[in-house]
Design goal:
Chain B: It is a multi-pass membrane protein. The complex is a heterodimer. By secondary structure, chain A is of the alpha/beta class. In chain A, about 60% of the residues lie in helices and about 10% in strands. The chains are: A alpha/beta, B alpha/beta.
Amino acid sequence: MYEKQTTKHGVLSNIRWQWQQVRRTTHHATRQLLTGIIIYAVLALGATILPAVVVQVLAQHTDLSKVALILIGISTIIALAQWGRPVNEITFQNTYSRGRIAQLIQFGIHLVKVPYVWQAIPEYDQDRYAAASYGLYGDNQAAQAIIKNGRDLLSSSLTLLVLLGSLAVIKWWLPLLLLAFALISDDLQKRTRRFRREQRDRNTTIIDRTNYLMRASTAETGAKDMRLYHFAGQFRTKTDALFREHETNDFRVSFRVFLQDVSIAALNGLCNFLTYGSLIIDILRGIFSVSGFTYAFNAVATTTSQLSTLLQSWNELNQNSDDLDLVRNLFSTEEAAIAAPHRTNTHLPAAPQPIVFKHVSFRYPGADHDTIRDLNLTIPAGAKFALVGANGAGKTTITNLMLGLLAPTAGEILLGGVPINTYVLRDYWQYFAPVFQEATVLAASVAENVAFHSTVDLPRVQAVLKQAGLSTDVARMAHGVETPLTNYIADDGVQLSGGQQQKLMLARALYRDAPVLILDEPTAALDALAESRIYQAYNQMTAGKTSLFISHRLASTQFADEILFLEHGHITERGQHDELIAANRGYAQLFKIQSQYYQEGATPDAQ
Amino acid sequence: MLNKFKQTYVRYLRFVQQLDAQAIPLTIANAVGQVLVPYLTFILLGWLLNTVIAGTTIKAIALPLVGFLALIFVLQVGVAAIKDHYNRFTIHLYNRIDAMVADKERKVSLQLFNAPTFRKAYAAYNQGRTYFGSFDRFLEGNLTPVINLALALMISLTVIGRLLFTSSEQPSALARFADSPAYPLVLIAIIGLPVIVSIWSGRKGGRILQSFFTGNIQINREYDYYFNHVFAGTEMSKTLRVYDTDDLMAHRLKAVNARGFENVQRSYTKSTAFTALGGTAIALATGGIYVMLAIKSMTGAIAVGDVVMYAGFFTQLISAVAKLLSINGWAPSLNQALTATIDLLEMPDPGAHGTLPIEKRHDNQYQLEFHDVSFQYPGAKAFALQHVNLKLAIGQRLALVGPNGSGKTTLIRLLTRLDQPTSGTITLNGIDIQKYNLQEYQQIFAAVFQDFKLFALPVVDNVAASAHPDRSRVAAALKIAGVDDRVHRMNQGIDTPITRELDTHGEDVSGGEAQKIAIARAWYKDAPFIILDEPTAALDPISEYETYQHLDDLIAAKTAIYISHRMSSTRFAARIVVLDHGQIVQDGTHTSLMREAGLYRDLFNAQAQYYTKERIAKERKNADLAYQ
């Protein structure tokens, strides 16, 4: 079951972890990082020094040629750095975003590899949501921000080392004064940031909801209901209300920023007064040069902004680190579950074997009752079984259990005498060809949708399409079996009708040619003729295989060796069709309801 | 050029100004605020240097210094206040445009909604919003630099003017140059260099970025597909697991990702390498300007403090120019998105052109008729409907029967004006339905579609589809649909939201329950026509049976059109129309159609056979034989 890790790693540990992710995708990361730091320092220092140099050379009445040489020389260095900075920024960002995107892909894939039942666990869902929104989803989330802020921290540290050192030479207390003011204004900024984060947390729910409304407004499914029932007005009201709430939160943040800006402006004014004042006194006393003053004037401004960057980077790094922990812990939890070390058996029989349920019970996480209660069932090798029952009786749960997608809460399931939880799932699944209730058409060609593999056996694809009754439809498509399906990624993709989708699912199962065939409501969307054709081909499809047919269309169950009638997670009747009809209980009732309208002379008010 | 300007910037400005009258004034105020403090800082430094070099006393300088710093502070407060105001304005603007787009998406006819031009405009709007922002970005990134440049230009021209009027007392060759007309020309040439470089590099970089943007549309579309549709939902996850397809799909996603990176590498970096040349030219020009100002200073025309101050002004000017020109890098892409946004909002909707009101009739005498109607889906080779003539009798129950893909659903889509016939007309009381007001016209239909959808609203809103639901009528509707017990068991009864998308107290319903709620919605609407397209596909036999039992209550005296693959349910229709390959092949009652050889009898018997004793016995035997 789902048990998440909650280790808190240090900032350094997390930077190192993320840096490894980055390094895994590219080799140039370190070089780009160092170049970036140097360029940054050159720019910050160059711009600070240049005016002072001008004042210095002018005050000394240097030759024009020398003046020109010095000024052009410094400008050229700055010019090079000026070009290098955006280029480095883009390449480095491209580099470290690769780490995040690789993680995001991992994140996506994990969801379809972790135990299936986790999807039903709200806590897991929340953890994933948190990891994605704080750690992975955007350029500004932890996985990228931690690298960027780490880099900024290093760059401004290097720059500050020079600036503070030089200012200390001018006045020993200057660095201390600037540091003190920087700490105060950083504290102010921290408060604003904290406030912003609080509002952001409130806004995430709002944004999710707005996104839902946007999604529902632009989705193809539901567009018809939206129009015929005029839902537009209600959606508008909801959207407006959400936006208002969102804006109220954002406006509050904006006002906080205003207060912060005013306070920092006052602080800076005070700080400047002290600095300039004392330096001017020194100049007037003749113990300090005018060019030195020019340098100090600019250096104070640069130092103030660099200190602010440094402190902000540090604060953000702490936050990033906490956010990244969400990702790191989630990944290690998921990876541990995916590894599933207790499953070692890879040796699966090639021919059908009996499948045995022994006192199997199953309860969904958080549910208050068992969906399956003490189920005992043997499906002999090669048997054709039908599973019948109302919605919610537990039919699909039984297939999920058999497929190892769900693990019994009690009891065990055996395949050919071997407990199925010892098999490596990937190998175990090869033993089954299921058609699930929900059709899943991938944005890929017809052939790929049938073969579901990177290599496609075309003749076999054609054969199973024919068996499933889809070959004429496919032949009519523009590119035959190579026709792309759905419009998700292809403009000329074909959208299959419900019936065609079901036939495609059947073809997919047949292509797999596994020892066990599971058909969960495979004909619900088919027209009567197509349905009948499937039934007629059923014997041929299932020859030499074990098969399980799930349906509430009772017509389909009559070819079964044995029919299992399921009520509330319990098999209440079993036997052949005639026997169950003769017993005149639940199954017979259901059959009567369905068949009455087909009997001649029936009228709607016959009963 | 001018025309292009009109189609872009003028159009955007007019659009935002119409949305919000304070848009342009506020942007100007904010732009001025942005540059005020930097200029004051240069002036402060220049003044300090000049005063100190000229010789002064602490007493004389103290008060002006305090005054200067106080002035800067006061201005900063003002600027912060404007910024706060401006921020609020842009946040609201952004949301408002989003709301307008969403509203448009919901209100246009389904034909426009599905039209590639409309979809593409939406995709461009959406991508632009994600990458560049919306009109707020235009004001901040596009308009603001223009205003800043205008300011910088004004100030710099004043300075150049002042420089022209300075002259040196010295007789040297350098002084002659500094006083000659060549001096301002050289100065302007130096200022011009980065401008020219920025124009060239910005344009070149922009063009490369544009190709990135174009290439990225498809890449983002695929990303979106894999993340949001393959690896996200619970829908695919079983198939991906059991069919061992997770790795195949992961492989594809990684391939898309690799393409994305290649695209960034190829275009984004290259584009930046060009646009960054603007900054390089600025740095070089700054050096040149310092040299020029140094000449003036060395010849005694201006003080040292002025050198620093003027240099500061000029760098502001150059960087203002460069900033404006560097938007070449992303402006074309942003413009694409902005144009798409306005296009989308203003896109004409031919499917909703009709204006005639629908006559309100209590007798429901609405006569609908198809006259030689054909329809071809855009891009499809074959016609989905061909030459259909059909008159719907008022108050009659009509069943549409036919194999998958025979055109049943298409017929319904045309009838409800979700699509428009390729040829032929449909009339309501003798008038082409396209001439009626679309919203009013659609009011006369209540439909349960095959792929119906409930929204994340409370049950009561889903059923009533109105801001002022009649609660007792909603309860009655749920009862008729046979889902009242289930809804009463929900945590807030009929006020329980469906799913947790909009409300944490929401509850999920099963497919069958959802279908019943959709049926309740159709009943609640009480429209003269009721359309049921496979309304029981998700129901189990007992629920299906119950739904049939309530069919009379559901339909009452309305005209009903019914589609189902369950032949058992269509036989009670007063009239059965059989479609095959888009054409009406049979038309009659169950009894009459069963008497003649044809598709209907085949379809009916195909299902009925499994419910007769003899047939079961025979199949059983066949199965045994095949198995042995």
